[in-house]
Amino acid sequence: MPIPSNSVLAGAVLLASALVSQAFAADRGVIAVGTPRADFTAAQAHRAAFAAAPRATATTATVSTAAVTPNELTASSYRAYPASCFSDKLPTIVNTIQPLPVSPSGVLYSRTVTLGTNSQNTSEDVTITIFRIACSSSGDNLSYNPDGGYVGATLMRIQRQAQYEGDSQVYPLFPDIRIAQGNITFDNANFTDYVRIATEPNTVLADASVGAPVINSTTYVLENYASPSLGFFYFNNAFTIRFDNGYQNGRVTISVSDYVPTQQTYPAAYQPMAINGYLSGAWYDPSAGSREGLVTQVLDNGDGATRTLFATWYTYDQLGLPFWLVAQGSFPIGSTQLSNVQVLYATGSSFAAQPPPPSPAVKANVWGTINVSFSDCQHIKFDFNGAASAVQGGPQGSGTRDWTRLGVINSLTCQ
Known about the structure:
By secondary structure, this protein is mainly beta. It has 2 helices and 17 strands. Strand 15 and strand 16 form a beta hairpin.
């Protein structure tokens, strides 16, 4: 619509509005000259000290009643989720391998947050999303899981706008992040609202620095500082998270509800569990009195790409005498199922190999095949098909078994 010639002031207003609209459309704004920056010096120093504090100085867990035994390997009492949840680089929904999921899923808590940039008088809008990933739970009452219920890991995604992704000339700065939960309030004198933000899971010291460059969109996992003087967050419970964008009074909060496993998107790529060392152990059928069992070990091959599952099935032949079957198969890291793994049994030796038999007498015979997967930390499922043709009355048959874990390995608890 034409602007009347006598409406110069109105035209100037419209022009200014158009320029502002363009700036917002680009999601990078201009901060008024002289707008004071927030001083993060103290926060940076405090966080650096907390991240560097040796965990061994704590004689007892902050929220656990179990004392830390000196000179014994123990799982971190400050961890916020099961260590086995991110014990592998997990396959994402699109089957790419990333340390943490790059696509938020399940119940999402998102806000647009305006962050200060490395350019003194500019800002950039990013999308910050809080979401959770379901983890298998052992049902144990642990520091992060006092009710023994289902647990998940709580993640945070900072997503830059597509037109700025990877821009290393002008980039947003990582905000100061605090959490309020229960009797932990924002800005308290004891700094108990500090939350540790890590890009690498299952760490004790890793932390994203306040004011650090955010050049690429990144997923982080929310952790507790390993310091007995700080607060301990139960990330499966409701909390409020606050982002300070680097300018005075530039704060945004997101309220996160209680974790409800049935509301989480659990990508098919995560089911069953990725096979790793946490799934080493002994397995049995608690409903049967057969006294059969399976022992599994997961070994690294040293190439950074594959692992080996070694399993022994102690069972019985058709006469009721003990009989051992052995399976071994290599697989790519991140695999959730092993298929058609060859199963063997040995003949030609003697008890304790005394006297040692001549080597040609010892023979590894093919029994059949087995498929193996783990629905969670506590259950193994395997399909089998085979026969001990070289041994009269040897075990034979096919079927499916769902067995339960028998005990846990010290300091290697799968949860």
